[in-house]
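pls design
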């Protein structure tokens, strides 16, 4: 399954259709409109030029992920965890998030939505 940003400059190939959409209420997801589709990070192929924003706005927590977007149209495409995992007490998860807003709207409407309270985490 192939997804793309608005201008088509970034394409994302998924290993299979998503099972669900995750709607997080953290400030980044709320303000960008990001809806997560989670996959093992090595199962997704990203092609095209992307610019990243390392989320480092949480004063009590070290940065742990990069939010990627297309430099041409500005659409947020996916996030990846940092290679240097900052948490000694937790193993680095094998996952990345793809923006569910890139899905065909009919497919997106057919998927269950799981609410995640990222604002309190």
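designed seq:
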């Amino acid at each position: 399954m192939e997804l793309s940003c608005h201008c088509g400059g970034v394409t994302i190939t998924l290993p299979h259709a998503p099972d669900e959409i995750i709607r997080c209420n953290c400030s980044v997801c709320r303000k960008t409109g990001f809806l997560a589709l989670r996959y093992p990070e090595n199962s997704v192929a990203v092609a095209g030029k992307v610019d990243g924003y390392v989320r480092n706005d949480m004063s009590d927590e070290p940065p742990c992920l990069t939010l990627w977007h297309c430099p041409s149209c500005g659409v947020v495409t996916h996030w990846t965890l940092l290679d240097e995992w900052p948490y000694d007490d937790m193993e680095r998860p094998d996952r990345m998030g793809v923006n569910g807003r890139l899905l065909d709207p009919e497919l997106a409407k057919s998927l269950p939505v799981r609410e995640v309270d990222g604002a309190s985490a």
